[in-house]
Description:
Elements: H1 10-21, H2 26-33, E1 34-41, E2 52-53, H3 55-68, E3 69-77, E4 81-83, E5 86-97, E6 102-114, E7 117-124
Parallel strand pairs: 1-7
Antiparallel strand pairs: 1-2, 3-5, 4-5, 5-6, 6-7
Helix pairs in contact: 1-2
Amino acid sequence: MSTLEAVMTTQEVANRFNELSQTGQWEQIQTELFADNAVSIEPPTSPGMQSAEGLSAIKEKGKRFGEMVEEMHGGYSSAPVVGGRFFSVAMGMDCTMKGMSRQKMDEIAVYEVKDGKIVKEQFFY
């Protein structure tokens, strides 16, 4: 007897992403929704953040970013817009980075879903 596990659709992944992002559960998003071989792409001009390949490298990238933040004053993630295998969200934060003044950062993040998991995230800012 075999049991088939249901594979989430892009809309279902996007909905779960939105549910978790509204309470800042970024590590849970990565653990639950990302494929082990996912890639994370930053703009080539990104100050201090680099692209990463593989879930463990993506988690480490998130940890490094968190270590750069002195104080988080607020943030947001918009409802997802889904198209085919992709969904996008507008995200932003109001924070003080270590050694810098308080600043607001806004970006668009695009996620690609394959076989019910996020296989690529790409940031535009």
